[in-house]
Amino acid sequence: MSRERIFDRHRHPAKTFSLGLQHVLAMYAGAVIVPLIVGSALELSSSELTYLIAIDLLACGLATLMQVWGGKYFGIGLPVMLGCAFQAVAPMILIGKNFGMSYIYGAIIASGLFVMIFGGFFSKLIRFFPPVVTGSVVTIIGLTLIPTALNDLGGGQNQPDFGSIQNLCIGFGVLIFIILMNRFTKGFLQSISILLGLVVGTIVAGFFGKVDLTPMLDASWFRAPQPFHFGTPKFNISAVLTMILVAIVSIAESTGVFMALGKILNKDLSSKDLARGYRAEGLAIVVGGIFNSFPYTTYSQNVGLLQMSRVKTRDVIAVAGGLLIIIGFVPKIAATAQMIPHSVLGGATVALFGMVVSSGIRMLAEQVDFNRYENLLIIACSVGMGLGVTVVPELFAQLPEEAGILLNNGIVVGSFTAIFMNLIFNGLGPAKEVPGTKSTGEEAA
Prior knowledge:
mainly alpha; two-stranded antiparallel sheet; 20 helices; disordered N terminus; NCS2
């Protein structure tokens, strides 16, 4: 399918708008949850958090349009939605707490420039991130985020009513609602189950006096984006390396989404197509750093919505990107996300982050040969180190502070472990088998 034929010029504008709105709703929960978690962890004020949510939505829209429209050097030209990279949440919080927010955005900008410059060479770098590595990393990302979800479910860490019966009932009620939505609904309703859980949970929590309308009432109706809102970017080598690693993992995940979309659209993607997609993602990361929002990556849930709706043209995604930009200029809309109580947010993120874990496990189960002993060892050690450092962050407390930003991050430690072990085992020599199993060759014999 040629790039020119991707647009449908015969569809009614109202239908195109409604389809674009569906895509916004499908990714909205994931888009606002990331700034809520990061902003709360870094103790931002209500107005600062409103700005962070608003600029994040605006940047999501810009990043999406960069990919959708395509060009000679930037944009893969496929109907893809971009949103916050979940794998960046823990590193951003760690960098912010250790060095300050200026270093977060310096690291984001540097990682985006790295992706843009080396976009054409990523096909070679991706070989260091086979499914056994990316599957392990995605699993680690989900596992390291689960404690954050449970702290919120209890009512918020260090809150006086943490773990109260009321908070637990609301939090688990939201989780059960999301589970039931996924059990008894299909199609679009199922795809926005997280968003509906947040809305219904907030309404219920309002009857218990747990919803604060102040941030929404105080927010303005319009605010232009401000570059470097949280300060001039500053650079630290450890922080930069951390975000570069996060960016590479995001690129590896995006590659899978690009290839899946290529198959759905019956389009063979060339290395040049992928390079344009990588550069656009790098540019989106730079834009996120400049406007003090987040790194951005391709959202796979919107690919599922494409398949469900059977509408696979770029104009629908372009409308979705435009809607996100418009919403980003209206802080009052963005501020409504702050109305979500901690317990409601926690109930939803248990499911959301749990899905990240299950995505990693599915990647491992479908694409990794478990008959190879080395693969099992790579998964065991990388997940063990990643989860271990998350649970026992003081393990490397005696090391210099510069090393701490890397080694105190379970995602980074687990990722490095997976990459290193994969190079040793799968890059050198024949593979062993799991004791008691036979290889395909032996079974055939």
